Amino acid sequence: MSDLVEIPARKGKAAFVSKGQSVKLINTHGSQVVDTWAFSRYDLKEFMSMEHTRATLVKIMPGTGDPLYSNRRRPILTITEDTTPGIHDTLMAACDSYRYGLLGCTEYHDNCTDNLTAAMYGLGLTAPETPSPFNIFMNIPWTEDGELSFDPPETKPGDYVLLEAQMDLVIAFSACPQDILPINGRQRTPVEAHFQILD
User: Fold this and answer.
1) What is the extent of the structural domain holding 61?
2) Prediction pTM value
3) Please, is 84 exposed, middle or buried when counting C-beta atoms within 10 Å of its C-beta (0-12, 13-18, 19+)?
4) Which residues pair with 35 in a beta bridge?
5) What is the C-alpha separation between 116 and 120, in angstroms, rounded?
6) Domain count along the chain
7) Most exposed of 62, 69, 89, 149 (fewest Cβ within 10 Å)?
8) Taking Cα atoms as reference points, which of 106, 104, 128 lies closest to residue 117?
């Protein structure tokens, strides 16, 4: 079991995970969305894909017991435990500078795309692209008409998701820096989250 690792507010963190190990992702304050990526350790061009996961599971929101699939349609992670209400997002792309420009920012804004790059760089790696992340704890309700909204998480402090590695991989997280929309709580203040690697 590893020590508790902090994902700093507005920043990213990555780690190596071996097949069979689990990663416990903790919503420390109960209000923080964490963009999550996984890459095959020995071929970063194979990565967790929300498009392939939705097509394989035939549902938008994966739950406990569901595998998450790679772009080569292989299980890469499995959700083995979830103490939250089970509300997570597979639809939204990682935020980036262009997104914040559309939201009215005229200066640089921390973003999940850059956080992925920095987190991977911290391990001496370069992601081949920014895949659409599994946005854990993110609440994106939809209507029968297909309309989407950005709502606060429905988690409480200490809620966690347990993910079991189905191959040797690199996992990367971003404590999403979104402070314009209320996805990180109505206070719109990004905070840190934590994770732990379990044998």
Assistant:
1) 5-198
2) 0.97
3) middle
4) 135, 174
5) 6
6) 1
7) 149
8) 128
